[in-house]
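Hello, quick one for you while I still have it in my head. I'm working through a protein record and want to make sense of it properly. Would you mind checking whether the tokens look sensible for this chain? I owe you a coffee for this, so here goes:
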Amino acid sequence: MSKLLEIKNLCTYFHSDDGIAKAVDGVSFDVDAGKTLGIVGESGCGKTVSCLTILRLIQIPPGEIAGGEIIFKGSDLLKVTEEDMRGIRGNEIAMIFQEPMTSLNPVFTCGNQVIEAVTLHQHVTVEEARQRALEMFKFVGIPDPERRLNEYPHQLSGGLRQRVMIAMALSCHPSMLICDEPTTALDVTIQAQILSLLRKLQKDMGMAIIMITHDLGVIAEMADRVVVMYAGKMVEAADAHSIFHNPQHPYTIGLQHAIPRMGTRKRRLYQIDGTVPSPLDFPSGCKFHPRCPLADDNCRTNEPELKPGAGNSQVACWKTGMFANGELFTT
């Protein structure tokens, strides 16, 4: 399988009066053509910043891409010109942002916003772009697409707005689609429809997908490989089957045990104590040690490196091997 995207030791920092926030610190992963990579973790772990850095959408200053490489189709995106990058954004790599109501411009019709994306990247007339927009509205399952082209975002439901965002992202037939919480604020029925649509579009178009989400259910349904992030770093990476059936890091196990399950009404829902630390004040040693029930002095002092674990996994933990199949958090 050919690697479409390779991220190597990526570092994205933000400078403030209080210090340097290391939002992404030494992250490395790759995405194969036609496959789905899931990135999971709590809010503030660096998931979205990693993907915004891929598209060079970090505001500089206060942001800074402090190091690393982003190899896309053999070229380092950190070394191409801004003009070339504008030709890649939306054309070769598209992104569905987290909230469609705020991502769509309220003063332009939905059709105009898709038409603008097409005319910006493709050498076509406005009428040809309109036809492309109409085709994409039909492609993503928007009912009565001719009428929806002329409607404003506030006239559409949340599910339809998300479909408009998907139509806009796919209008130039990108090689890669980045989805940042694509089912946020949607009811479960619409969530299922959006995920089913993304799987169908991936199959039809052969594109790679990066799926950013808090929802491990979405990861189980969509991802071929999974990266678990915590405090700006990768703590575990493996294929989806291994992540769910043989997790190696206490944080991954904790996330799984925090999922409600059928038939467990009498058991208190597990929670990981504490919160994600501020990137301005990360703890020494392993970043997860203040919340980990296995932490010892070595964990508090020395930071573990990401190393090969069981099977094809990578894990950054001094205690790997001391528990199996989630036994650590069994209550």
About this structure: The two ends are 41 Å apart (CA to CA). Residues 240-329 form one domain.
